[in-house]
Here is the input.
Amino acid sequence: MEAAARLTTPEALKPPRLRGRRIIRFSESDPDSVWGNVLGFRPLGGRVRAVRRMATILLWTLVAVPIQAVLLALPGHLHIGFGRFYFRTLAWLMGLKVQVVGEQARGGGVLFVSNHSSWLDIVALGAALDASFVAKREVGEWPVVRTIARLGRTVFVSRTRTGTKGEAGLIRDRLSAGDNIILFPEGTTSDGGRVLPFRSAFLSVADSARTVQPVSVVYDRLGGLPACRRDRPLFAWYGDMDLGSHFWRLARRAKSRATIVLHDPLDPKEWPDRKALTAACAEVVAESCATLRQNRPVAPLSPSAATNPKLRA
Here is the structure.
């Protein structure tokens, strides 16, 4: 009986070459308990990487802010090109590779309609598109971020009905003047695993745009490997997440990639109303995001005839 009990112990079940070896136990100091994940980062190496990225990003921003301020005071569109260069450099410093599928619509007055899951979308889209953003008014009160946003000619909007009318007029004026605008019709950030319903009220300014171009953004690589469901919360910034701690967790990780799909442009005049236009944009954006999350190859999409009565006719 005693011999049988010894043979059924966990030690006895191990191969002979592994018996008697000590189990490797990692430190419990890591708050995220990622040591059980073989792809997890080293605590010390991750901290050094994060500090290095924070220092270089701050230094680059301090250099870029006065340059952009001067370019804004000069005639022409030099500030637009420099703004894109700023975000490209920022993405490189953060270890974020931006892959673009498709082509940006030619000319000015383009309204880009994109899904939104994180503040990182600003960096990725800013590096890929020559356009300004529409952001909630609270962003204009964040330290450092507000300076960058204002130099990028960001349009700040409130969530109250009384302030929306005047802000929509400002966006229309910018589109009519030939500026390109990036809009997030979801109205908030998602968890990265889905695309929230698009609100047609956000596309009330589409009548002043020359072209509307749907855009899909998905973070599909982490550390050179395909990102899976467990990695979505690392990129997504939603709910009551703190910006500083979210940036710290992301900065500790190895290189990542954002894939941006620029779908076929739409003429807003070809759609009967803004609800139909919103449904068309939401359809192609959500379908492409789902394909990217499955780590399958993607291509720019066009809306189906089901979303446009004129196409059915």
